[in-house]
Amino acid sequence: MTNKDIALNVITYTSLIHGVRKLGERKEAARLFDEMVSKGILPNLHTFNVLIDTFYKEGLVGKAKNMVEMMTLGDIEPNTVTDNSLMDEVFDLMLSKGSMIDARSYNVLINGYCKHKRVDEAQMLVLEMCDMGVVPDTVAYDTLMDAFARWGE
Question: Can you say where the PPR repeats lie in this chain (predicted)?
Fold first, then answer.
């Protein structure tokens, strides 16, 4: 990684981290992150998002949480991509533990999607509710109707 023709900066490292992660090389992604930080190259929002998503998908919740903490300590505000990784992980964790996913659980996600103008995804969650045997309640429908009215759909 010390080739004189390649600029070692946050973009280079983030691209490499993203690439090795797509190849399923989580440990190499973490090693590159550590190398980047040790060289004084500060990670950016995208760098953190790649690693947070990687760790959650690998079931390494503690490492993902550490990334979120490091991110916020560095005054980097999580964005929608970060939040989606967190929401997906919580939902997957609930399912894997056999927790009861009820209308309220879905309503939290539906509300979040609608607030961020992602009405199509909220609508898909209502369909998923039905597929999972969870009956959508008035909160789910009211949230969707409000979003349709607000965002002109």
Answer: 9-43, 44-78, 102-136
